[in-house]
Specification:
This protein is of the alpha/beta class and 261 residues long. It has one domain: Rossmann fold, CATH 3.40.50. The protein is 50% helix and 11% strand. The protein has helices at residues 3-30, 52-61, 67-76, 94-99, 129-144, 151-156, 164-170, 173-176, 178-181, 189-196, 208-219, 239-248, 250-259; strands at residues 41-45, 81-84, 87-91, 104-107, 120-126, 201-204. Strands 2-3-4-1-5-6 form a six-stranded mixed β-sheet, with helices on both faces. Strand 2 and strand 3 (87-91) form a beta hairpin. Helix 2 crosses helix 3 and helix 10 crosses helix 13 (250-259).
Length: 261
């Protein structure tokens, strides 16, 4: 019993030393990065179910390795960071994202909770609000059928209910209106518009390939469009349900309209 706390402290100290060595390597690698003349790194504000995972895997593919395998490695890597040749990738780790020593990083962290370094090229995708909501619902339904659901499901299953309408009504506002909340903590449409316009690139998921073409032209990359597997869950929405959801998601439709999307 006496040795366990000591072993834990020793392990944490060893991990810290490893992190410092890795940090030094990342700083050395990333010094050479330059995009469009002034940008030092690329970051995506990833709103769930908007095509962000496809975008992330396209950037991971630039490493020359299997993007699906690398994505899984990032999930399980300590600190969620991987160095592959001359590419440094970070996922979900707020501290490392804010430090800025990477080629590409992404997370679901709202913009108002992040302090990105200067000269960061920023991207986000936005999707038709009803389509995004239904896709989120389908993801939960599919996860509920798995023998070992992902960790996030245990937190979100309380919202599932027995239909997509139950789901929509159970969601807290910051999840129902997640695209808006990503850029405005108080769900203010004008604030959201202002913050999204600060991104170097934003585009509709429904025009994904066109958005990637603009991205490639903007920072001289060669991203190849790819699509992540979609769910087989089927959801039928009546005209009444669509009308109700449109009303519930009205702030996001207003947001999209003001952005010209």
């Amino acid at each position: 019993m006496i040795l366990r706390p000591f072993a834990g402290r020793l392990r944490r100290r060893i991990n810290l030393l490893i992190d410092h060595r890795e940090d030094d390597e990342c700083q050395s690698i990333t010094k050479a990065y330059s995009f469009a003349g002034k940008y030092k790194r690329i970051y995506t504000y990833h709103v769930r179910k908007t095509g962000g995972t496809s975008l992330n895997k396209m950037f991971l593919a630039l490493s020359g390795t299997d993007s699906n395998k690398l994505y899984e490695e990032l999930i399980h890597a300590r600190c969620h960071r991987k160095i592959v040749g001359d590419k440094v990738y970070v996922g979900w780790n707020k501290l490392l994202i804010e430090r800025g020593h990477y080629f590409y990083a992404y997370s679901h962290i709202p913009s108002h909770e992040l302090a990105l370094p200067e000269n960061t090229y920023t991207i986000t995708c936005l999707r038709d609000p009803i389509k995004r909501l239904v896709s989120h619902y389908k993801m939960l339904v599919e996860a509920a059928e798995e023998d070992s659901p992902p960790a996030w499901f245990h937190h979100e299953k309380k919202w599932l209910g027995r239909s997509v309408m139950d789901f929509a009504e159970s969601l807290p506002p910051e999840h129902l209106l997640r695209q808006l909340y990503m850029f405005s903590p108080h769900l203010n449409v004008d604030v959201g518009v202002s913050e999204i316009k600060k991104c170097n690139l934003y585009f509709r998921t429904e025009e994904f390939d066109r958005g990637i073409a603009r991205l490639n032209a903007s920072i001289d990359l060669n991203l190849s469009p790819m699509k992540v597997r979609s769910t087989n869950v089927q959801v039928e929405l009546s005209s009444k349900m669509l009308k109700t959801l449109k009303r519930m998601l009205a702030p996001e439709y207003e947001l999209m309209g003001k952005l010209g999307l």
